[in-house]
Design brief:
This protein is mainly beta. It contains no helices and eleven strands. A hairpin with a 5-residue loop joins strand 4 and strand 5. The N and C termini lie far apart (40 Å).
């Protein structure tokens, strides 16, 4: 069965960085585009970034463009989200997504 397990979240000060990972299993990882989606407290889901199956095409929400970088290692079945220059408004639970499958999420809190 498909499993997605996010990690790498935590508490960071504004301007700091974090790198999220998502251990994927149960499907042919290298065949699928992957997404990162977040949910801020009291708000709905917000798409953050996509990467195609080969890693050569990436897409970002305007709110994170220039600060976040999505990547993937198909040998390790893992997508990543490098988050730099974090802002308090980036505080959210971050989810890894493929098709209709979701991980449990990892909490990112940006606060001084």
């Amino acid at each position: 069965q498909v499993q997605l397990v996010e990690s790498g979240g935590g508490l960071v000060q504004p301007g700091g960085s974090l790198r999220l990972s998502c251990a994927a299993s149960g499907f042919t990882f290298s065949s699928y585009a992957m997404s990162w989606v977040r949910q801020a407290p009291g708000k709905g889901l917000e798409w953050v970034s996509d990467i195609n199956s080969g890693g050569g095409s990436t897409y970002y929400a305007d709110s994170v463009k220039g600060r976040f970088t999505i990547s993937r290692d198909n040998a390790k079945n893992t997508p990543y989200l490098q988050m730099n220059n974090l802002k308090p408004e980036d505080t959210a639970v971050y989810y890894c997504n493929v098709r209709t499958y979701w991980g449990q999420g990892t909490q990112v809190t940006v606060s001084s």
